[in-house]
Specification:
about 300 residues; Uracil-DNA Glycosylase, subunit E; about 10% strand; binds uracil
């Protein structure tokens, strides 16, 4: 195994155990909250380790011993469910706390060039582990650089990774319908994600991935300067607003980020799984429409 693969395997393994501070240059002990450190120091049961996600890249010697013929893993390697450390993760910084809010708005005529410069700065990014998680394309954004309304999702899925555009799969079709129901066309809004690379198996982006990528979404928001941002789902709301709260507690009120009003609603992928919540999402979008003085299209009879 080449050294980079070996290093990646170790990083993935530690990340699966909930150790995130490794990606920072500072002393990881400083970055991990006290409660998390305690939990990790008492969670060292050698046979109860969670199976690494990317075991294919682990060396043979480090793989758990398991008969290839066994229908089930042998009891010796059956791991207890890994402790849920997500609640112990630090609260992310809000987008407002990451950089001063610009006092000057980029002129409409300069926005395409400014966004191109951000895309160029991202380059063929290897700043976070998602660069090594099987991504094919960096999904920057789609839509109007002068949009009044911006949608922020979580991260690209398989269709987006293949096409290079956000929200083009099934969830994207539902988002298109939501936009149309608001009396807008997709080309009239700006669509981006918290992370620009597809997380492996569409898992939720991890703290280090989301916070590493934030700097670019922040610049995109500052350039586009939307009046309203709709945070689609808990991940978008968590990182934009720097909160760790339930979606239910964030819906139905206005928040702010980078000078824009922020509404929180359900992610279209969630609505596909639970269509009963579409009515609730529509209420959220109607509040946005009222705020922006948008009128829904007339229904043809
Ligand atoms: N889900 C997201 O959050 N973003 C996409 O671009 C596609 C699906």
């Amino acid at each position: 195994m080449v050294p980079e693969q070996q290093l990646r395997a170790y990083v993935d393994y530690l990340r699966d155990m909930g150790i995130y501070g490794l990606y920072h240059r500072e002393d990881p002990k400083v970055l991990l909250p006290e409660s998390l450190r305690e939990r990790l120091s008492t969670a060292t049961q050698p046979l109860a380790m969670p199976a690494p996600r990317h075991s294919a890249v682990l060396s043979v010697a480090s793989r758990p011993t398991m008969s290839p013929l066994a229908a089930k893993p042998s009891p010796a390697v059956v791991s207890a469910p890994p402790p849920d450390l997500s609640s112990l993760m630090p609260k992310p910084p809000s987008f407002d706390s990451l950089a001063p809010i610009p006092t000057h708005i980029i002129l409409a005529a300069d926005r395409v060039a400014a966004l191109d410069a951000v895309r160029a700065e991202i380059g063929d990014c290897t700043r976070c582990p998602l660069a090594y998680g099987g991504r094919h394309t960096i999904v920057f954004a789609d839509g109007d650089p002068n949009a009044r309304l911006m949608f922020v999702g979580e991260g690209p899925g398989a269709d987006e990774d293949a096409s290079g555009l956000p929200f083009v799969g099934k969830a994207g079709q539902l988002l298109n319908n939501m936009i149309a129901a608001m009396g807008l066309r997709r080309e009239e809004v700006y669509i981006a994600n918290i992370v620009k690379c597809r997380p492996p198996a569409n898992r939720t982006p991890e703290f280090v991935e989301a916070t590493t990528c934030s700097q670019f979404l922040l610049k995109q928001i500052d350039i586009v300067h939307p009046e309203v941002i709709v945070a689609l789902g808990a991940t978008a709301a968590t990182y934009l607003l720097g909160v760790k709260q339930s979606l239910a507690s964030l819906r139905g009120q206005w928040h702010t980020a980078r000078g824009a009003k922020v509404a929180v609603t359900y992610h279209p992928a969630f609505l596909l799984r639970d269509p009963r919540q579409k009515g609730e999402a529509w209420k959220d979008l109607q509040r946005v429409m009222a705020e922006m003085h948008l009128t829904p299209p007339k229904r043809s009879t």
